């Protein structure tokens, strides 16, 4: 996998979170405080940090909605909270409304500790840790393409967060399971032409280095449906880089795909 994928601090989880929440909002009309009807979804172009203030996530909240309510751009809210979670923020999670290091000179407000498992102690509000070992999945995962595995997942290695499957230019790349396309574009450095599919509130799959993308954001896809043509955009050979993510964290795809 190309090390440039992590350049400039851009992460696939943050991008997927942003595009999935944007897609979920559809075309609802929003009126910002102090402003008129914009005729469509409007988001702040610049953020207004609120030093010392936090908000507690409630069921149904999204980063996009929280950002709009508090006059902060989704990108800043993601960066300030170091979120690498492409589809889910959880009830009870504390979201900071200001960049790290900014202070207001007064005690923080609305600080709530997220739910902890029995037996835990202290007042830490750190995000839930990445899963240790395989997490059970009820999804019937399929291989996205035929070909030899030329790159494998390595836990903790930010440049090896999935598997690389070699093939030929134009070869079909298929959806690994039923889902909805939440990203289709080339905006993430090192992944080339990229597609991200949301399968549930916890599970995502990503397909990079495509020659041509055949699906659009918001489109529903079925397991085994062709979504792209294999290529080498952002890579040095024809292949598909494939990731499975649970709650935004990469997991080993070979723990979930059928044995070959």
TrEMBL record:
Keywords: Signal. Residues 113-127 have a biased composition (Low complexity). GO terms for molecular function: metalloendopeptidase activity. Residues 105-131 are annotated as: Disordered. Pfam families: LysM, Peptidase_M23. PROSITE patterns: LYSM, PROKAR_LIPOPROTEIN. Residues 1-23 form the signal peptide. GO terms for cellular component: cell division site; cell outer membrane. Residues 53-97 form the LysM domain. Belongs to the E.coli NlpD/Haemophilus LppB family. This is LysM domain-containing protein.
